[in-house]
Structure formats: C-alpha cells, structure tokens
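I'm stuck. Protein, please.
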Amino acid sequence: MKTAIFGLAGSGKTELFQALTGPRTTLNERAMIKVPEPKLEPLTRYFHPKKISHTEIEYLDIRGGGGKSSSLSQRALNEIRPYDCLLAVLDNFSGLADPEDQRKTIETDLVIADLAVLEKRLEKIEQDKKKAKHLHDPQEEQLLLQAQSRLEQESPLRRDSDLSLAPELKGFCFLSAKPILYVWNCDEQKLGTGVLPAAQSSEAHLEISASLEKELAELDDPGEQLAFLQDLGLQESALNRIISKTYALLGLITFLTGGEKEVRSWPLRRGAKAPEAAGVIHSDLQKGFIRAEVLAWSDFENLRDFKKAKEKGLLRLEGREYTVKDGDIITFRFNV
C-alpha cells in the first residue's frame, strides 16, 4: 500500500507531505501513516487490549517535479512507477499557474511515458514473431494494442478496468493505469469555493489548504487543534479525507480482529474471500484455513457484546467462499 505524492514545482506537495507526517519527520521523504478507523474505539472499550494497531499507508514525497508550466521530470516519472497509487498536488493558491492546465500536463506526461514503454514492448514482440511464433503471448499483444489505441486518444488506462487490471499488463506498471487523487491546494480563504471535476474511474479530487494543514499538524494538543479548526469554521482536518480517499482508490476495505492482547484493523482487497483475509495476517493462517468466525460490524454496534451476539445467532461460521465485508470482526480457525 504505497502512495507517491508528486506535482509540478511550487504546488505545495512537500508542505502536504509534512502535514501528513507531522513536524518530527520533515527531513524524511518517506513515512508510514495510520489509516483513520473509528471502529477501533468501541472495540477497544470492549476488549481493553494491551495494544491497538492501525492499518498504515506508505507515502513518498517525490522530488524534482519540474517547473510550474513545464512537464514532470523523468526522475519523478521513474520514481512514481513502483507505487500503487498516485497523489498529484495542483497549485490553486499562488495565481502563477492554472491548476487545470497543470492537471492536463500531468495526465499528458503519464500517457506519453506509458506509450514509450508500450511501444518498446511491441517492437520486441514483432522481433520475436519473426523468429518464432511461440516466443510471444498473443493475449498480451492484443491487450497492448488496445492500450496503445486508448493512449493515442490521450485517455489514461485507469478509465478502462479491463486494461488497468489485466494480469498480463501488470508487470509494465503503466502510470496512467494507477489510481490517482488530485489534491487542489488552495488558499485557506478560498476553501470550499472551488468547483472540482467530477470523480471518474480510479480518479478522485479533493480541495485542501496544505499550509493550513501543516500549521494544524504542528499543534500537539488535540484541544488546540479543535479550537484552530473551529476558528476557521471547519469540522475536521482534510488529512483524514486524503488518507481515506487514498485507501478507497487502492480498492481496499478493512476487517478487524480483537482480543485482550491486541485490537487491530487490517487492509483487504475489496471482494476478497475469507482465506485471503487470513493470509493478510499470516500466510500460515491462509494455508491452514478451516473457518472464519464472523460478526458484522452493524451487529456488534447494536449489541456491543460477543456473548449476546452468539446467543442471537449473529456470530457466524463462514467457509472459504465467504466474501469479507468492510468492518467484519473475524476470528480465524486454522490448522497448520
């Protein structure tokens, strides 16, 4: 679960990164950030565990974004390629650049970078076909040609799930296939006044003030943070929304485990079955999976008692084909 923060020069991406990570980690370019999970609090009150653990997302501050009106640097494009999700920061505060033009520039750079990778592979396939038919995969070639057609129309691959999720293309790490969150970094006085583009497949938009969020993060006392937000007429920090949107773009849900030793939230691919969830905790649990004892979050929220849930038949035993739901509280039965 890795997300790269990048943008053109002066967009405020490093300021946003510092707001996410807090003042004590401003010298680092990489940080692990806890995913907010309000469900942990009532579960903690029930179990009184020795330890509470959150799901985390890794964020990287990509340096060398390029000039305000120029393209992204090759270094930046290379560095974001291994990451699962992209967070692009747009300058909507200085008045020196048009954020929509910056967004279009970023999209163009991603598409051009993908075309370069794709065309190089297609050339290699043509060479292999001349040597022997068995040296290439026809399915891969067909998918690459479809991707090439879309990219030549200046359309990112993320808008076609058949291409962006195709196993045959996964190894290419196409940049335009990655989910992306555009953060429109505006002046705090203009928060809430902008009109953002509509969300599309694997693409979301969010308006924040990075300077305000950085200032808020520098306050250690929660009471001071709340007063700071109230003075500005805000309900909460935008950082939680950034993290939550990143999590959603990654296609993840959360399941929970609880006991006297630890209460914990775990990330899981949406649509995954119970054995895959067990494997998130440990590969041995997936190999030896027998059953999953599941309590839906809504049922726990209503009863706040596992014993009562069991008496009412709400604590269920599920098998290998059970699709895990967001917020499920699970105990795995296994044999290794």
Notes: Residues 55 and 266 are 6 Å apart (CA to CA). The domain at 271-334 is CATH 3.10.20.30 (Ubiquitin-like (UB roll)). The first helix runs from residue 13 to 21. The chain has two domains: 1-36+56-252, 271-334.
